[in-house]
């Protein structure tokens, strides 16, 4: 007798590559037909850019990004900077992790973080709102909001933030 067995089916949705790391957004269909959207990462993790809770242990195989600190762990979009990672959650929140130099994570400081963290506010204290697109550059990040406004933060060298200054912006 032949027995049918259902297994998890993985469907890649989006992939992004940093200087030395890669993130992939996957839909995983479970045997009960429920779908989980998960992030997997591999490569260099010296700055926490894999999002596995540490800044140690590079890996040559995909490992699950730890999104337990996020209020909405279902991600809809991803982007890698050189050594940091950005994502948008289903509720439009911006999530960042990895190298924090020049303020590129948007968390208000320059510390590296292996823990995905919500980017909440601009330097003037306003909530960012719902993100529709996010992109990581070499040492900066840019987000487009549902309102049509764009915000940038991180390294301001060469005028790359587009804010009329060469200064770093640490939201």
Rg over alpha carbons: 17 Å
Please report the total strand number as a whole number.
11
| Average of pLDDT | 90
Question: Strand order across the biggest sheet?
Answer: 1-2-3-4
Helix/strand order: EEEEEEEEEEE
Write the layout of secondary structure elements.
Layout: E1 9-17, E2 21-29, E3 35-43, E4 59-64, E5 75-80, E6 84-89, E7 94-98, E8 113-119, E9 131-136, E10 140-145, E11 150-154
What does this structure look like?
The chain is mostly beta strands. The chain is 0% helix and 43% strand. The chain has no helices and eleven strands. The chain has a four-stranded antiparallel beta sheet with strand order 1-2-3-4, with no helix packed on it. It has a four-stranded antiparallel beta sheet with strand order 5-6-7-8, with no helix packed on it. The radius of gyration is 17 Å and the shape is globular.
Which short descriptors sum up this protein?
mainly beta; single chain; four-stranded antiparallel beta sheet; 0% helix; globular; 171 residues
Could you provide a short overview of the structure?
The protein is an all-beta fold and 171 residues long. It has strands spanning 9-17, 21-29, 35-43, 59-64, 75-80, 84-89, 94-98, 113-119, 131-136, 140-145, 150-154.
């Amino acid at each position: 007798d032949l027995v049918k067995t259902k297994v998890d089916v993985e469907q890649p949705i989006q992939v992004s590559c940093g200087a030395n790391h890669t993130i992939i957004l996957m839909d995983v269909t479970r045997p009960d037909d429920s779908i989980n959207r998960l992030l997997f990462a591999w490569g260099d993790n010296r700055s926490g850019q894999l999002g596995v809770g540490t800044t140690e242990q590079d890996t040559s195989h995909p490992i699950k990004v730890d999104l337990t600190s996020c209020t909405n762990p279902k991600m809809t979009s991803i982007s890698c900077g050189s050594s940091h990672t950005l994502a948008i959650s289903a509720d439009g929140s911006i999530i960042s992790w990895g190298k924090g130099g020049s303020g590129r994570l948007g968390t208000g400081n320059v510390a590296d973080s292996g823990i995905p963290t919500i980017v909440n506010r601009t330097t003037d204290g306003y909530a960012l709102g719902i993100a529709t697109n996010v992109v990581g550059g070499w040492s900066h990040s840019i987000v487009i909001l549902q309102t049509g406004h764009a915000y940038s933060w991180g390294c301001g060298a060469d005028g790359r933030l587009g804010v009329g200054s060469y200064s770093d912006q640490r939201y």
